[in-house]
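Predict structure. Chain length: 610.
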Amino acid sequence: MDAKRTLLKQYYGHSDFRPGQEPLVDALLNHRDVIGVMPTGAGKSICYQLPALLLPGLTLVISPLISLMKDQVTALAQAGVPAAFLNSSLDAEEYRDVYRRIRRGACKLLYIAPERLQAEGFRRLVEDLPISLVAVDEAHCVSQWGQDFRPSYLEIAGLLRSLPERPTVGAFTATATAAVRQDIETLLELQNPLRITTGFDRPNLFFEVVHSKDKDLWLSRFLAERPAQSGIVYCSTRKTVDSVYASLLAQGIPAARYHAGLEDGERRQNQEGFVFDQARVMVATNAFGMGIDKSNVGFVVHYNMPKDLESYYQEAGRAGRDGGPARCVLLYAPGDVRTAKFLITNSQENQEGDPQRLERDLERLNRMIAYCKTGRCLRAEILDYFGEIHGGSCGNCGNCAGDFTDRDITVEAQKILSAVARVEKRYVYGLGAATIIKLLRGSRDKRVLQLGLDQFPTHGALKALDRDRIQQYIDALTEEGYLVTEGGEYPVLRLTAQAGDVLFRGKKVLFRDRVRPAEETAAPAAPAVSQTADGGLLAALKSLRFRLAQEAGIPAYMVFSNATLTEMAALRPLTMEEFLQVPGVGKVKAERYSRVFLQAIQDWRAGVSG
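Prediction complete.
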């Protein structure tokens, strides 16, 4: 076994690499820059941590959040890897202690926030250090085209130029479109990098969009069906976070909340409560999550629609990090669109008056809205957005596995298209979908009368249908290419050339309709290892893990992940040699934990046989 595989097994408990890891590791070991785009849970950190162990000198890891650094360094310590971090959570003496450890070569990895790169003390420190590798985590933060732009990331290239000898550079991210990937390469000044994109697909995640009139009721049912699962509920505003959080507490659900309006101490306490499994559900804005390396998140529910697909996929991807099945549900309502537009137009960046940025943000919002309204495979929608080729239908999302029937709506489609055509003929500037729906439903409100729409032949043509149903038909016609939405903040509906096929040439239109409303088909809990199959061994191992984690003051998943415990329950090792064969069990952890886990398995066997 070569050196890198030996260390992979020793520190991480794996006998072989996951897709994409080995070429990235080899490139860094051969002093070639890399850019790695790998989905959450695919093992990006190993791609730079393993070279750090094999290369001489220090590896500098630039990471955006304090919590992320703490989690990474704690996890490395559990695996037996010497690492440290520098950030504002340390006091002066702790800073000096880290500096001393680094200068005497007692650390292989140093995690630092990008904001500290310009600090005079840090610059003096790195000038004298043999830095072999700089790893940029969450590298999409360097791009203004990305959803998490951090201006401090633009300082990284300057740091690299200032060092006595330029180290090898690795840039890693889970979510990056082609434009963001190009920005990463350019702005970090990567030199002939190896580019590896392992794909954005997360097969263990079940994606679903639910159009629910009562989100609180749906969420209550959803949580009641999975009482043992940990998860995150994302909300678009602080007010909604507080409301959902209060509702869950009133139902007796152990929940925590997180948003920028809370005091630092409360945010930190709530985050730790979730990470340490004291709070089962975290209700949060998008301020929560980037730095959370919690592997046993069984679901992520978006109570409101995010502003773009990058944000949605990154946030939803915090479920199922251990490779186990998990659900990602987006609760959609038309009001979410208004909220998202308000947040976009009133953001600090767009208040500064950059029309191109505003237009780009609204375009990304439209893609997010399309995801919420589509009847096609949800996984395909996500992979299309990131430019990845796929099979078209995954069979494992709410749209592919849902209870649907095809309904012929050709007559309704002709009436909608005819209404848009007549509006375009009378009003060259066009009208929005809301006004078109009022026309079709026969409304006589002030605006309809002012525009004279009550005189149109199509006035009231679909008065038997409610507003939501007509909107669904419009969405379907847009997705099929018969209608198009134009304009940014105030979009209008337009016909396309294809509309003539339906209006004049007999083309049929089919609408994929749910047999039952989505809120009546709440997602079942993700499948888990049968307790009858292992006679309660997995539960016993989880209970032991929880006790050990409490004693050590670390999150439970840092002892062993759910995936590792599941394998342990299946393999039932009785010797140290067998224990080391369990995926995810490295040498250091085996030496630390084998005795108690082997004893637990032996006790279980004795109980079963007795």
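Summary: Confidence is low (pLDDT under 50) at residues 517-533.
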